């Protein structure tokens, strides 16, 4: 009987404040969608780091005829200097750190350059002899690239030794900044949702102040009086949370899997499994925020 009375009060509150309930649903939906996107973006960055760091190579650029620096004082790297670098890569000192390596000569570098910049006018001015002959090295542990840099940088005929992870760090730092920005916006939206839920509960209680007074006179407990208001906030927030979870699944399916994956097949993206992990988090977060904000509003601002 008590449960039926509570549900009746909840239904009454929802009917009397339809516009405010819709507002709560929309604000919760938007704020939790931002939260879900921020979580997915963070997961995406971590997934891309694991994918690309394992593939990152160390490039040993040999001198060209136009290279400067002490190591390139003799002009283009000679066959003996190229062989000396290979000997170092195969030596007992460096071999344990190296998974595999291969050599790219002028013609191969020029062919790859033309493929990479196809349609770009710069290809008309670049010739094969201007491009470095390069040893591309995959390490067993990409974090130990300093060993190669220190061992090979001073060899005659070596223009530079570059760890590709340095380029990746710049990209990931930008993505991380975008992730933190999304988190900040989501936090502001959650604050707005909490304030709106609290306002809705206060207005709902004010519109039923006569009924609350009667319930108080007949001996109803504070918990019994407060429970319908808390449930109103939780129900509205849960509807918004379900919509947000659906939006996250739709974003992953239709934007990430159907658009980004075919367009960028050379990298790794989050999948539906990741979206389904985020969905329960949004539902739980929406329910908790609504319950606490409603509890605070009814306790702090209502004298029943």
UniProtKB/TrEMBL annotation:
- Organism superkingdom: Bacteria
Membrane topology field: Multi-pass membrane protein
Stretches assigned to the FtsX extracellular domain: 57-161
Residue spans crossing the bilayer: 21-45, 177-201, 229-256, 276-298
Pfam families, per database record? FtsX (PF02687), FtsX_ECD (PF18075)
Q: Print the keywords alphabetically.
A: Cell cycle, Cell division, Cell membrane, Membrane, Transmembrane, Transmembrane helix
Main location class: membrane
Where is it located? Cell membrane
Query: What are the ABC3 transporter permease C-terminal domain coordinates in residue numbering?
Result: 185-294
Q: What does this protein do?
A: Part of the ABC transporter FtsEX involved in cellular division.
- Record-stated family: Belongs to the ABC-4 integral membrane protein family. FtsX subfamily.
PANTHER family per UniProt: CELL DIVISION PROTEIN FTSX
Q: How does it assemble?
A: Forms a membrane-associated complex with FtsE.
This protein is called what?
Answer: Cell division protein FtsX
